[in-house]
């Protein structure tokens, strides 16, 4: 981890988070802090076919501070160091409890880029906020990590929020017709789950191949129009 990158992390005192948070089950759907050569460090898991690689964040003071902040959030929630975290569309760092994801802490904010070492191609890095070579509908070949949201069968964007008392549908202030159209070009009918990433990138998965053996592959849908999106929660 000798290279450097301009990654900015702004730490705050860990506190409980009451805003939108959800996670798709699985190890590869979130970021993690893990021990690498004796140092806690942010990583993302990347699966290609049957192989999964642990890709560490490119070295920077911000990356080291991020790892420390995530561990502080775990301690606030009575957990041990290390574990999963998410970065939402506003760059907020959300840390779930290791004892149940209905308890979440916020530990700070970050700014793009989010650059990691490509363990499939040594010496190369990738940026999870770089969509310069992508058009809506293009294949997303990097890790699929983000906060899940939904498009209903009736083409209404919403977020499903759950707590100990049950669940409720949260609607954005304005339905973003351009985003809905982009998602419907990829998934013409039915309910759709999509994820939003740091910097407002939007991804979803589409079935590929014969219906009986179809596999689900990630596609790029575009970027959020923040004027039609949920307000930044604090």
What kind of assembly state do the chains in view correspond to? single chain
Report the principal-axis shape: globular
Count up the helices. Answer: 2
Uncertain segments are none
Strand content: 35-45%
Look at the structure and give the mean pLDDT: 94
Element pattern in H and E: EEEEHEEEEEEEEHEEE
Radius of gyration: 17 Å
Helix and strand composition category = mainly beta
Task: Describe this structure as you would to a colleague.
- By secondary structure, the protein is mostly beta strands.
- The protein has 2 domains: 8-127, no CATH class; 147-228, no CATH class.
- Helix content is 11%, strand content 42%.
- The protein is built from 2 helices and 15 strands.
- It has helices at 61-76, 177-186; strands at residues 8-16, 31-36, 39-48, 51-56, 83-87, 92-97, 100-111, 115-117, 125-127, 147-151, 157-163, 166-170, 192-196, 201-208, 215-223.
- Strands 1-7-6-5-2-3-4 form a 7-stranded antiparallel β-sheet, with helices on one face. A 6-stranded antiparallel β-sheet has the order 12-11-10-13-14-15. A two-stranded antiparallel ribbon has the order 8-9.
- A hairpin with a 6-residue loop joins strand 14 (201-208) and strand 15 (215-223).
- The two termini are 33 Å apart.
